[in-house]
Design a protein that fits this description.
- By secondary structure, this protein is an alpha+beta fold.
- The chain folds into two domains: 257 residues, NADH Oxidase (3-Layer(aba) Sandwich), CATH 3.40.109.10; 202 residues, 3-Layer(aba) Sandwich (NADH Oxidase).
- It is built from 15 helices and 22 strands.
- Strands 2, 5, 6, 7, 8, 9, 10 and 11 form an eight-stranded antiparallel sheet that branches. A seven-stranded antiparallel sheet has the order 13-18-17-15-19-21-20, sandwiched between helices. Strands 4-3-22 form a three-stranded antiparallel sheet, with no helix packed on it.
- It starts with a helix and ends in a 5-residue tail after the last strand.
- Bound molecules: flavin mononucleotide.
- Flavin mononucleotide (FMN) binds next to strand 4, helix 6 and strand 20.
Length: 499
């Protein structure tokens, strides 16, 4: 099944939602944490200094901080019935966390070279193999590795069943968005420690699966290579060994979703296909609203990363968001990502595929309406004037938070241009990009005391109709909302600082 058929088949409509209504099968909810049995466990130190580029630090400290500020458990919620569940630094649709973090290291302080899996439940590393060749082996699966000097290479795997349990066939979209969020969380934490992160979506799927010995339910989705002086030392050249480990069973029963399998197969690569560069369309922004200079300051990433939470809902009568804050959030959301599929690594002109449409409900100094954002000129073009709060909530499957927030977003991907550049594989890439932009919206808002919520549920074609988009002009792939969160009574413990 190609991406077009999959995308059409998984659009939300009122009729489909009514026909598909059913209870969740709680007895077979997949476990949110993966463990490998029969492998050595390596402790990641809990005692950490501040997240920063300065100072000497060894491999264990580097990895501990990297995950602590990108993927670790950061809060607990308790439901009315007393059930406790964990929340993490990276957000996830339905808090189901399909993304697993595998990583290979070489020459990383005193840390033994090898292949590992991050055990998020206890903030430990599971050592699946020892040896100095794993970084190279992972990078060799990428079709144009520009990161030969990388000392840490992460592979973000996805477990589709974790999302399909709730979202059924539409889950592939959520898995890809989730990868985008996790990638950006990693990139940002690495950046704070003086590292650059290069992401590769263009790799040979089966080859990488073989390198990782990935279990049947995990599929590699993105490689993230870290480079720079963020870590010191020579590394421990361990003798080659293989443990592999036995992956835990996530639920007694799983349900197969052929459309997910189909789109994943269609977007897999078995041979090198060179991207065909596609020029980004020119922008006619005459008459747009030029955004003012971005608000200066804002809290540091290290302070807000673990505090970030999705708002359950927003306060509809909160004070308006200052325009300079919106300006700062928008400019931060569209900076370069450093990835092969946008041309950033090869020196090709950078080519992003996602455009932000804003439903401005409450921003000081900006009239209400629907706008399109131009990153090139950092300006907004008014498309529909007036109050769109009811429509924004309605388009997001009736979720009130999209109407109660200060600004709601539709992220629209130029899928035709992406597919002309990358073929079927483009379907993954536009969702990775949208997820990464979403992560920047979360973090950008938190830095200025505002909050966000990713919204994966929307009536696709109703959004296109509302925005006046013809099919060839783009497809909505993500919604988002920013505002002042209402307090969440279920939030019981939050760990923000390094412990
Ligand atoms: C791709 C994606 C889609 C999401 N869709 C929705 C949504 O439609 N409605 C909603 O209220 N929250 C949505 N969320 C927020 C998640 O429910 C939230 O991230 C999760 O419960 C974990 O909470 P946290 O973000 O506070 O860690 C989404 C999050 C992501 C990453």
């Amino acid at each position: 099944m190609g991406w077009r058929a999959y995308h059409e088949a998984t659009k939300h409509t009122v009729e489909r939602l009514t026909a598909e209504r059913r209870e969740l099968d709680w007895a077979h909810m997949p476990a949110p944490f993966r463990h490998y049995e029969g492998v050595p466990l390596v402790d990641l130190p809990a005692e950490m200094g501040a997240l920063g580029a300065e100072g000497e630090r060894g491999g264990a400290e580097f990895l501990s901080r990297l995950f602590y500020y990108s993927a670790a458990v950061s809060a607990t919620k308790i439901t009315q019935s007393g059930t406790r569940y964990a929340l993490r630094v990276n957000p996830s649709s339905g808090n189901l966390h399909p993304t697993e973090f595998h990583f290979a290291t070489r020459g990383l302080g005193e840390w033994p070279d090898g292949l590992y899996h991050y055990r998020a439940s206890s903030h430990e590393a599971e050592r699946r193999a020892a040896g100095g060749h794993w970084v190279k082996a992972v990078l060799e699966a990428a079709l144009a590795p520009w990161s030969r000097e990388a000392r840490v290479v992460l592979v973000l795997n996805s477990i589709f069943w974790r999302e399909a349990w709730k979202y059924r066939d539409r889950a592939y979209r959520y898995c890809c968005l989730d990868v985008g969020h996790a990638w950006e969380a990693l990139r940002r934490a690495a950046l704070e420690m003086g590292c650059e992160a290069h992401a590769y979506g263009h790799f040979l799927d089966d080859k990488l699966r073989r390198v990782l010995n990935a279990e049947g339910d995990e599929q590699p989705m993105l490689i993230v290579a870290l480079m720079g002086d963020g870590v010191s030392g020579q590394g421990v050249n361990a003798e080659a060994a293989w443990w592999g480990g036995e992956a835990n069973i996530l639920s007694a029963e799983t349900v197969a979703y052929p459309q997910i399998q189909g789109v994943h197969r269609a977007t897999s690569l078995s041979e090198s296909i060179a991207p065909v560069p596609q020029a980004a369309p020119g922008e006619d922004w005459a008459g747009g609203v030029r955004l003012p200079g971005a608000e200066k300051g804002g809290e540091r990433y290290a302070t807000v990363a673990r505090r970030r939470r999705s708002a359950l809902d927003f306060q509809p009568h909160a004070e308006a968001m200052p325009l300079a804050v919106l300006s700062a959030i928008l400019s931060g959301a569209v900076e370069g990502h450093g990835c092969d599929f946008e041309g950033d690594l090869s020196g090709m002109p950078s080519s992003r595929f996602v455009t932000l449409y804003l439903y401005v409900h409450s921003v000081a100094g900006l009239e209400r309406g629907v706008y399109r954002y131009s990153p090139g000129t950092h300006s907004l073009r008014l498309m529909l004037a007036g109050d769109h709060r009811v429509a924004a909530a309605g388009l997001s499957l009736g979720q009130q938070l999209a109407g109660n927030c200060a600004v709601a977003f539709s992220l629209v991907a130029d899928l035709e241009r992406a597919a002309a550049a990358h073929g079927e594989r483009a379907y993954r890439y536009v969702h990775f990009e949208a997820g990464a932009v979403g992560q920047r919206l979360y973090v950008g808002a938190e830095r200025f005391g505002w909050q966000g919520t990713g919204i994966g549920a929307f009536y696709d074609d109703a959004v296109h109709h509302y925005l006046g988009l013809k099919p060839e002009q783009g497809q909505v792939v993500y919604h988002f909302a920013l505002g002042r969160a209402v307090p969440d009574p279920r939030l019981s413990e939050t760990s923000t600082a390094a412990s």
